[in-house]
Amino acid sequence: MDSVPLPALHASHAGCWLRSAPGPTGAQTRGLGKGEAVMAAADTPLLLLNAPLVATRLGYPDLSGLDLLELFAFVHPARFCVPTPHGLADALGLPQPGDDADVSRLLQQAAGALLARCESDDWAEREGAWSSLQSLARLRWPWAPVIAPHLRQPERAERWLFARLPEWEEAPERPQPAQVTLDPAAVEQRLESLTGSGAEQRPGQRAYTREAARVFAPRPRADAPHMLLAQAGTGIGKTLGYLAPASLWAEQTGGTVWVSTYTKNLQRQLRTESARAWPERRADGSRPVVIRKGRENYLCLLNLEDALQGGFGGRAAVLAQLVARWAAYSRDGDMIGGDLPGWLGTLFRNRAIRSLTDQRGECIYAGCPHYRKCFIERAARASVQADLVIANHALVMVNAARGRDHAQRPTRIVFDEGHHVFDAADSTFAAALTGMETMELKRWLLGPERGLKGRRRGLAARLADVASYDEAGGRAVAAACDAAEALPASGWLQRLAEGQPSGPLEHLFAALRATTYARDESGGQDAGYGIETEAAQLDGPVVQLAGEAAAALAAIRQPLIRLGLRLEAIMAEAPDWLDGQGRARIEGARHSLTWRIDMLAAWEAMLDRLGGPTDPDFVDWLAVDRSDAREYDVGLHRRYLDPMRPFARTVLAGTHGVMLTSATLTDRGGEGDGWASAVARSGAPWLDLVPMQTEAESPFDYASRAEVLIITDVPKGDLAALAGAYARIIEASGGGVLGLFTAIRRLRAVHGRIADRLARAGLPLYAQHVDPIDTGTLVDIFRDDPKASLLGTDALRDGVDVPGESLRCVVLEQVPWPKPSILHRARRAAQGGSAHDDRIIRARLAQAFGRLIRSKDDRGHFIVLSPAFPSRLASAFPPGTPVLRLTLEETLHRLQRPVLLGSPPQDATAKDDAR
User: Fold this and answer.
1) CB of 425 closer than 8 Å to CB of 397
2) Does the residue 595 lie in any domain?
3) Does residue 211 sit within a domain?
4) What single string gives the DSSP state of each residue in 151-182?
5) Radius of gyration over every alpha carbon of the chain, rounded to an integer in angstroms
6) FRET pair for 854, CA 20 to 30 Å: which of 141, 608, 682, 689?
7) Helicase ATP-binding domain spans which residues (predicted)?
8) Is residue 696 pLDDT above 60, yes or no?
9) C-alpha to C-alpha distance for 641 and 237, rounded to whole angstroms
10) Residue 197's Cα: distance from chain center in Å?
């Protein structure tokens, strides 16, 4: 493949290399310093790979050039590519670069390969490319003049994206599923067909499948679903274990099974695994398996149209054109974790990506000109007709709490990653009366503020025809909009800081802010973290301001209730002009009204509680949210002491069968029944249910394939020692290290001290909160390169699936203690004190350890850099796993051993017992 006649620049932590444009005498590659590299990039357009990352490496944020990833996104929209030299070479079928110095040559070859693809007759993504390129040329996209000679104009005018997208079709409501009891023999036969006749026989998986089938039996009475808690160790094959009875039940009953996950990674895995049980499409063209996510994950076509027609400027406008290219080839329009490359947003602005989704419930439903082509509506309708819906915990709970359509409420649910159901419920059923939330409500009611860009329309504009037809409804809209003027407006944070609040809500937030600063004792003020204090023993003036704010909120809620009643009346006696599309628009407005009325009622209840007796069911606190010492929100927060109470009432009670499954569902340590905490955190006690329980132990030989090493001589708080330990561990392991941190500042400090040193040894190091790359892409990069290591925080502790050589060592920088928040303190007091803390820590350790051994051939070390690691927490690890206390030097020697012996040396065991 010919190289393009353009110079190329590659920069890593190991150095910088510039390759000249190919000429009569060939091209030359030379190393250069960061300053010279920046000057070279400023002088002439250079080929780069992942410009934001290169800019970070050079310390020059204004770097620009010809980014190969942008070209890849244009040529191959909706196609996966790991955004590294290695990944790009794989995606294009090019030879791998030998070392850093050879990467710049690869960039020239890759550009040539992509441009040659544009000339190829069998280019699958040709349609729309020429029209898109004309728009990109007008936006002065640097690649446009480079691509233009290689892209011929089509003989016919290309259809615009919105003309090419297919329309969804209405389908009749699916009948109730038949009532059947699955035959155990048939369930095992289905499992065998899914795993394959030559597959290894797993007795644990067969037993697990038999138990899972029990949740699909007919329900004995109302509000009493069959409920199973199933712990399945890594390697059991739980996904196929529950898909076997699920697919059989769906086949025999015509019903829909929902599988809910906590992480996007597992959703992708489920999509792959489900192909064993269902075809891609049925005979009628419909999909038997559908992925569902929250609205904020999908491309909003109206937002995209606005962006394409001038709503975006500069680089964001280029992004909109590339997203339009992607939308034409996307499977389902999922922008967050779907087939849109995760790195595309970081090449431009992630904020621009979010602006193309429905982040704030701004959808106008049938009032949208693209309603019949909407990705969200398509997924919602497809899920009603599907046999399997792959969703997430938050969506399942939100749908149950405020779903628009009873037919879309799941009745048979498998909660995979079931240990996270408590956390998801905690977020879903929370309430927060904050400046940002009230501003969003104001924008929903009134539309964008004067002078601000945005296509969103206020309530009056959305319901103008209704208001003109129904006088009472029009008065209700006007009253709600008038009352909304009391809500905060742009610049509210600045006014609070200057002591000049405006309106009852801003005055309240100013008082809450002052109280929080006065009472906070966490030390977060000096460290730049967010701060909080109890919502108790408040002064009289604060309580008075709370009452005035509650009255202002009630003045908004009451006319919204009246409006909702008028909309119901219009639907009941529809006027002649109300067509099907208009009815759908009013239904959407009613749905939006309902949940905002509920939100206002929750806010009023929170304010009414201030100054009064404590409600034992809730935990309330004041908070000033900050990032790097910069305030971004202020307000009042409320959480259920036990969020499984509303979960049981809202989600469980309406189901017929529910299964919670995970490798870390139960508490492995401590005294007493390890199932007790799993039962309590399932919500079953709130419905007086006694759930079924089953446990399948992992088939992996942890005793001979894994070791837990507690390093005893890295002093806590010594950043230099911590960084040195990480560097030496990564060097001894030859990469393949996943480092988990409990604080972002320490992560950044360690990365800054060791990244260059490791890169010079050929061991690339990546990090969350440092590299301008989204978390999913960071994991893809880590998985793709066995010599790479990755540092991260909580998001990498669970749901990361990296089997094989790419992950050989997990390192925790300290024991993952719970954050000592007001909410944690309340739950700790209610649930056993220090025993509650230990359960949380053991769960986190078990989840982190679970990243290490993902297949029967995996082996590795789990290291904790904490000399004060309590021995009682060691039960978090699988039985038989050696747990050793060693010095750093002893640990490094063990890391270099090619085979794990599985039995600790006598002196190490004695050392552990002595503690």
Assistant:
1) yes
2) yes
3) no
4) -PPPSSPPPPHHHHSPPP---PPPPPPP----
5) 29
6) 682
7) 191-473
8) yes
9) 35
10) 36
Do residue 625 and residue 733 come from a single domain? no
Residue with tokens 């945005």: 454
Domains held by the chain: number? 3
Tokens of 911: 């050392």
Quick one: how far is CA 900 from the chain centroid?
35
SS3 for 884?
strand
Tell me: the pLDDT tens digits for 157-209? 888 888 889 998 888 888 899 999 999 999 999 999 999 877 777 889 999 99
735 in the same domain as 619: no
User: CB within 8 A of 829, min separation 6: which ones?
Assistant: none
Question: Is residue 229 within 8 Å of residue 418, measured between CB atoms?
Answer: yes
Q: Does a structural domain hold residue 684?
A: no
H or E segment to which residue 254 belongs: none
What is d(CA 190, CA 603) in angstroms, rounded to the nearest whole number?
A: 50
Secondary structure class of 798 (helix, strand, coil):
coil
Residue 441 has, within 13 A of its CA and on its CB side, a CA count of 28
Mark whether 762 and 881 lie in a shared domain.
yes
Alpha-carbon dihedral angle through residues 839, 262, 424, 345, given to the nearest 10 degrees: 120
pLDDT tens-digit readout, 300-340: 999 999 999 988 888 999 999 999 999 999 999 999 888 99
Angle, helices 264-274 vs 775-784, to 10°: value is: 60
Structure tokens at 845: 């350790």
Three-state SS for 434-492 is EHHHHHHHHHHHHCCCCCCCCCCCCHHHHCHHHHHHCHHHHHHHHHHHHHHHHCCCCCH
Instruction: Return d(Cα 779, Cα 20) in angstroms, integer.
Output: 33
In which band, very low, low, confident or very high, does the pLDDT at 906 lie, cut at 50, 70 and 90? very low
Q: Are strands 618-627 and 630-640 parallel, antiparallel or unpaired?
A: antiparallel
445 and 568 housed in the same domain: yes
pLDDT tens string 58-102: 999 888 899 999 999 999 999 989 999 999 999 999 999 988 999
CA 133 to chain centre: 32
Which of the 8 DSSP states describes residue 355? H
Nearest to 741 by CA among 756, 755, 726: 726
Closest by CA to 195, choosing from 240, 245, 246, is 240
Helix %, strand %, coil % of the chain (to 5):
50, 15, 35
What is the span of the domain harbouring residue 63?
8-160
DSSP code, position 298: B
